[in-house]
Amino acid sequence: MSSPTAVRRVLLAGGTHGNEWIGAWLVRKWQHDARSIQRQGFDTAVLLANPPAVERGVRYLDQDLNRSFDDPRADGASWEERRAREILEDFGAGGRTPVDVVLDLHTTTANMGLSYIITNLDPFNLRMAAWVARREPGLRVYAWIDETLPKSALSTIVPRGATIEVGPTANNVVRGDLLLGTERVVGHCLDFIEASARDDWTPQPEKLEVFMHLRSYDYPRDASGAVTAFVHPKLQDADYQPLGPGDPIFQSLDGETLFYEGEAPVYPVFVNEAAYYEKAIAFSVTRREILWV
Amino acid sequence: MSSPTAVRRVLLAGGTHGNEWIGAWLVRKWQHDARSIQRQGFDTAVLLANPPAVERGVRYLDQDLNRSFDDPRADGASWEERRAREILEDFGAGGRTPVDVVLDLHTTTANMGLSYIITNLDPFNLRMAAWVARREPGLRVYAWIDETLPKSALSTIVPRGATIEVGPTANNVVRGDLLLGTERVVGHCLDFIEASARDDWTPQPEKLEVFMHLRSYDYPRDASGAVTAFVHPKLQDADYQPLGPGDPIFQSLDGETLFYEGEAPVYPVFVNEAAYYEKAIAFSVTRREILWV
Fold first, then answer.
1. B274, A172: Cβ pair inside 8 Å?
2. What CATH number is attached to the domain comprising A233?
3. Residue B4 pLDDT level (bands cut at 50, 70, 90)
């Protein structure tokens, strides 16, 4: 383990984006009845991260809360910056009730199934990912390590944790299959933390498939910034499927097809995520790696 | 034909709901290049119905524009009521450039595929539906005749027309397959209108499968109105599939399953549509009928 610190408190967060209802609903469930998230050896706190955004069914009020944890100011002009500071003062390393692990629950409009996003390669995180992947066939592990998420996401306020990202789903609905899948993944994580804290815990090295972030691609746009092409039907829903030169990626409104020209094979993720039009991301690409963890 | 009036002008509307992008994108395309929607014998106008809602990526600003056409006031308090009046004064029966047929383009988060919604059984509408269904395998015709839509939807400002409803898709994205499908359906409608205006047009009676609206069901809610159960995974995505007594319809957060108890067989539509949580509709049910049209 990278950190010898025992896990004393875990934070389960939902509603970080107010239009992603599965996390918000699970937080509501656990606030009412915490039995399913209780384990031996540590406490589990639950947090509805952005209540007014959940109330209004919008991703955020002023700015993306999940890009706001890189040194937010308590007197910041945006609600989410102030809220990020509050959360840090409650649960961050120097906070009132600091946590050791954060699991943050999200949904996506992309066909990412059950995805487990890590933002560093801390051995604790890799071993937890492997534990969950072994128990949840089909779960994919995506290491989103770039200039943005690892510094500013809620799951990164401490080194240990993950973002659980499930899709495809529209915003402002609850899909039962994905809610139940999210609940299973959280349960596996809590089981891992409980098991790893036991004195007789002797982890055996095992293989883990990890999709390592490479870069993102924007939509074609005109001079005014308006998007002029849609994701090609052959790339739509093809998250985690191999993509290579000559494969179609966009189709313009007047019928022109655009093709991928980069390195290969890569594996796209977040294909046509609704919230990323404004972030200039039509899809990201990853490299598939097998790690011993 | 119920109406002997020749079709002189057709209105193609998109962006009636500002977060349903396929219609808005097609309107933008046609405003730039109208060749694909031009036919002999009539004019085709295009309308971005709710521009500020499209700009903000929201369904509406003040109220649902597609429930606002039942005698809206020009000095109404809501933007959409005033906008509905403007549209009527432009394109309604007594307007400046009245239209004879309205096609309004929508998307849904429900698994409705390519759906063709009519709000009356006008023979022109049924024959146009049959023409399109014959050319677009998989298209479903839904007759939504209840106390709401037939009076207040944009497609009902004149007796002839349809709402084209495609899904499943998240809001605020463009799925290429559904955009291309919508474009094909619009093309078939325009072809029908062109063909039906010819002097030598002699329609032959044919069968048409129509899903006739029966009623809608709300989500289970607590005393405060909060939804307490999600659509059961077996009903999710099961639009137009037979539903009968004993079939699961909801699952509560604490694991209880609720079952359908009504008449059978019925065929659900709009299962888990994001915009209908606020309208108290978890799904609607229809009766399948075969009409000679």
1. yes
2. 2.20.25.160
3. low
Q: What's the total number of domains in chain B?
A: 2
Token pair recorded at residue B216: 């809608």
Candidates B176, B232, B273; nearest CB to A233: B176
Residues of chain B contacting residue A172, judged by C-beta atoms under 8 Å apart: 171, 274-275, 277
Query: Global pTM?
Result: 0.96
Give chain A positions within 8 Å (CB) of B174: 230-231, 272
Interface A:B, Cβ pairs < 8 A: 80
The residue range of the domain holding B44 is 9-204
User: What residue type is assigned to position B76 of the chain?
Assistant: G
- What is the Cα–Cα distance from A144 to A213, expressed in whole angstroms? 5
Q: B66 and B141: one domain?
A: yes
Whether residues A51 and A108 fall in one domain: yes
Per-residue pLDDT tens for A250-260?
999 989 999 99
Q: What's the complex ipTM?
A: 0.95
Chain B CB within 8 Å of residue A228 CB: no
Chosen from A174, A182, A221 to mutate, greatest number of chain B CBs within 10 A? A174
Q: Which of B162, B179, B204 is the last residue of a domain?
A: B204
**Of B168, B173, B273, which is closest to A274 when you measure between CB atoms?**
B173
Same domain flag for A68 and A139:
yes
Q: What is the pLDDT of residues B133-179, one digit of tens each?
A: 999 999 999 999 998 888 899 999 999 999 999 999 999 999 999 99
Inter-chain contact A29–B254, Cβ cutoff 8 Å? Answer: yes
Last residue of a domain, one of B188, B204, B220: B204
Q: Determine which of B55, B174, B177, B179 to mutate to test the interface with A (most A C-beta atoms within 10 Å).
A: B174
Is A195 found in the same domain as A100?
Answer: yes
Residue B255 in any domain: the answer is yes
Helices assigned H by DSSP within A2-78: 21-32, 51-56
CATH classification of the domain holding B34: 3.40.630.10
Domain membership of residue B195 (yes or no) is yes
Inter-chain touch A173–B272, beta carbons under 8 Å: yes
Q: What is the mean pLDDT of chain B?
A: 96
Residues A22 and A80 in one domain: yes
Supply the DSSP string of A138-192, one letter for each residue.
Answer: T-EEEE--SSSHHHHSGGGSSSEEEEEEEES--TT---HHHHHHHHHHHHHHHHH
* Residue A127 located in a structural domain: yes
A200 falls in which pLDDT band (50, 70, 90)? confident
**Whether residue B193 is found in the same domain as residue B282:** no
In this prediction, residue B3 has a pLDDT band, given cuts at 50, 70 and 90, of very low
- B117: in domain: yes
